[in-house]
Amino acid sequence: MSVLRFFLGGRDLEMVEIRRLLDRHAPDRFEDLGLSWGARASAYLPGIEAALARGETPVLVELIDDLPATMDRARLRVVDHHGNAAWRPTAIEQVFALLGLPSENWTRHMMLVAVNDRAHVDGLIAIGASAEEVAAIRAADRAVQGVTAADEAEAARAIATRQVVGRLTEIRTTSNTSSAIADGMLPVVGGPGHDALLVVMPGKLSAFADGAAIQRLSHAVPGGYWGGDLPRRGYWGITLSAQDAERVTEAVRALLRCD
After folding, report:
1. Of 44, 137, 233, 252, which has the fewest CB atoms closer than 10 Å, so is most exposed?
2. What is the CA radius of gyration of the chain?
C-alpha cells in the first residue's frame, strides 16, 4: 500500500481528535487548513495533486468531493460517515484503523467523541456516559465549532420563544449555529425536549428528528447534508440562498410535521 496522506475536513470535536491522532502517529502525513463544516476537497487541490505525483494515496476526511472530473478517484480514499456513507464507522474509527493502531490505543475519550459524533447525547447515555461526561463532551464540541458565549445566550433566548405545532418544534435564531440550541433542548441538561426540531438561522436550516424524517428530507430537498445515528435518529442541514429561503423552509416544515 502506498503512503497515506490525510486531508482534514470541517472542524468539530471529532476532527480535532483525528488531528491529535495524526499528530502522534503520522505527524508528517497530514494537512489541516482548519476548515469549517461543509469543507470542500478543492481547498486542498494543490496538496492532493502533489501527493498523487509522489505516488501517495490522498485520504479525504469528511470533505465534499468537488475535485476536477479528470481526477482519478480510484487513487483516493474517502473517510466519511455522513450522507450516503452514514452506515460506515465514524471518521475517527476509520482513521484509527487506517493508521493500523492496536486496540489498546483506543481510549474512552475517543469512544465518547465517536459516539457523540454519530449519536449525540442519546448515544452517550446509551453507552453509560455520566452526566458529567455528557456535559463535558457537548461543551467541548460546541467550543471547537466556535460557539461563543453570545451564541449560548442567544440559544437560551431562542428556546424560550420556540413554537410547537404537533410534533414539530421550530426555533428561530439570529445566530449562525444550531449546536447550542439543539443541546439546550435536551432533557438531560434540563431542556424541554422535542420530537422533531427545526432551527431556522440566517441563510441556513438545521433539523433533528427520527430517521424516517431525515430520509424524507434527504430525498426531497436537494443540496442538504445529513448524518447521525441513522436509521434511528439523525440530523439534516442546508445552506439557503435568499431567493430560496422561504420556499425551502416551508417545504422542510411540512416534511417534518409528517408522522
Report:
1. 233
2. 19
